[in-house]
Amino acid sequence: MTSRASLKGKGKAGKGSKGSEEGSSAAKCVKEWSTWAMKKAKVITHYGFIPLIIVIGMNSEPKPQLYQLLSPV
Amino acid sequence: MGSSVSHAAAPPPTAVGLAVALPPKQDEKAEPKNVDWLNLPCPVPFEEIQREASMSLKPELFEGLKFDFTKGLNQRFSLSHSIFMGSMELPSQSSDTFKVPTAHYEFGANFLDPKLMLVGRVLTDGRLNARVKCDLTDNLTLKINAQLTNEPHFSQGMFNFDYKGTDYRTQFQIGNNAFYGANYIQSISPHLSLGTEIFWLGHQRKSGIGFAARYNTDKIVATGQVASTGTVALSYVQKVSEKVSLASDFMYNHLTQDVTSSFGYDYILRQCRLRGKLDSNGVVAAFLEERLNMGVNFILSAEVDHRKKDYKFGFGMTVGE
């Protein structure tokens, strides 16, 4: 929650300064948002990659049963 | 076009009798084929130029217990569980070896399709190893390799775009820390291929260029690599028979004045695969994979470093394909 509030604050400040200085702060904005996007992408990949493989695998033909995921046989 | 040429070269009727009397010349080896310079074979990818030497001389030696279980749910989808208990070596600047006892459980999922390959492994400490290989078109392949950790700034990732032409291959790499690399390899004869690579490290402002050559026939593979980082690597592999091959390797680093040379053997027998090597640093290593039963493999690994007095022995089992 606090992180979301601080992010909104940063965005407003960025937009405010854009009016006064163009060019450099626009590039800074892009860099900031792209760094934020990379961080989010890293977290999503870290938690979601293995579940993604499992989902793709369980939906491939011939469809395996759910109990086969957990049983050692 | 071919038929008109043979008609022109047809022998006169008198010579036909003489040709029948003399026995035709028969070579035991195959006749030397005319090289079709426009249809050369595709070379191996640049990073696999020393593949045969690496497979024989650098098996995955380990110390401790290793147990791998792979369970296939499907022809394409499988899960793997792996346990390792032993010491891992940490790289240290001094000549002492620094070993850390570790134990971890690793869970993995693989999805292998001819067009899409997804391999993921996650360890108990939260590290994720991900590999993706996707065939975008017939000739263009995208490969992604990533190691993600929970600690910040320790994660690594690399994107590779591979293009395969008729007798050449080219690859473009983008990695984290602003790493950019490209390499190109071309067949210039049915047996010889030459390649080159360049890379640029953004954060450290370092760049380098390297050249490589590979000569292979059915029996031998000889490669050489030179890089502007000051390394020279040569290797030679001789396939003595169907089951035995011998390999040797020479590495020279000009900046650290490091010279290493190693000799090894690789026996691929019906029930086992035995690889051993002897190094100029005083290291003797051996790696045995024995097939006990269908899908059950027993592994023994040994590495004895006489100079550093470091002795590593490991054993393990691999169950599943």
Concise structural overview:
The complex is a heterodimer of chains A (73) and B (321). Chain A has helices spanning 2-20, 24-58, 67-70. Chain A has 73 residues and is mainly alpha-helical.
Describe this entry's structure for a reader.
The complex is a heterodimer of chains A (73) and B (321). Chain A has 73 residues and is an all-alpha fold. Helices cover 79% and strands 0% of the residues of chain A. Chain A has 3 helices and no strands. Chain B is built from 3 helices and 19 strands. With 321 residues, chain B is mainly β. The model of chain B is unreliable at 1-11 (pLDDT under 50). Chain B has helices at residues 2-8, 13-21, 51-57; strands spanning 64-72, 77-90, 98-112, 116-123, 128-135, 140-148, 156-164, 168-175, 179-187, 192-201, 206-216, 220-227, 231-239, 244-253, 258-268, 272-279, 283-293, 296-305, 310-319. Chain B has a 19-stranded mixed β-barrel. Chain B is 7% helix and 58% strand. The relative contact order of chain B is 0.13. The chains are: A mainly alpha (73), B mainly beta (321). Chain A binds chain B through residues 42, 45-46, 49-50, 52-54, 56-58, 60, 62, 64, 68-69, 72, and chain B through 69, 71, 73-77, 79, 107, 109-111, 113, 118-120, 122, 128, 130, 146, 148, 150, 155.
